[in-house]
Design brief:
The protein is an alpha+beta fold. 25% of the residues lie in helices and 34% in strands. It contains three helices and eight strands; from the N terminus they run H-H-E-H-E-E-E-E-E-E-E. It has an eight-stranded antiparallel β-barrel. The radius of gyration is 18 Å and the shape is globular. It starts with a helix and ends with a strand.
Length: 153
């Protein structure tokens, strides 16, 4: 029984290292990271800069600071991250974001592979951000809107 638990612990540890290492591991001589840096030079709509919280999560966070919520962080330097708790907002990010017309693109390197993470049609109205996800496979725009509001600590 102990031998089985030790084996499970090693497997979990190795999986965790693989997942965490995949965020920064780039076996293609840095080409993936260079592509992300180049994308960070693309134009970005400054109205998206900042931290956004899913509107339906805002009140829940007021009640419980440790609640799992949906944050989108669009930094002015072209870095992007999603977060589910407040503590994750300041962690390092490796995704790049940019805008073209009414579309926001988020790209990332994962285990050395350069890929499109998300593509959404966006609309900013004051302190409200509305995102409609675009399917990577079909290109169809989701009818469901994800509504975010500007997050202020």
């Amino acid at each position: 029984m102990v031998k089985g638990n030790v084996m499970k612990s090693w497997i979990v540890l190795l999986l965790a290292l693989f997942v965490l290492g995949g965020c920064s591991f780039d076996p293609i001589d840095g080409k993936c990271k260079k592509k992300l840096e180049k994308l960070r030079q693309k134009p970005r709509d400054p109205r998206l800069f900042g931290v956004w919280i899913l509107e339906s999560d805002k009140d829940r966070l007021k009640e419980d600071k440790d609640a799992l919520v949906d944050f989108q962080v669009f930094r002015s330097d072209g870095h992007h991250r999603t977060a589910s708790i407040i503590l994750e907002l300041e962690r390092a990010v490796s995704n790049a974001w940019y805008t073209e017309k009414d579309t926001v693109f988020v790209r990332r390197c994962m285990s050395g592979n350069f890929q499109l993470f998300s593509k959404s049609i966006y609309k900013v109205n004051g302190d409200t951000l509305t995102l409609h996800t675009v399917s990577k496979r079909t290109g169809d725009v989701s009818k469901k809107a994800w509504v975010y509001v500007q997050y202020e600590e």
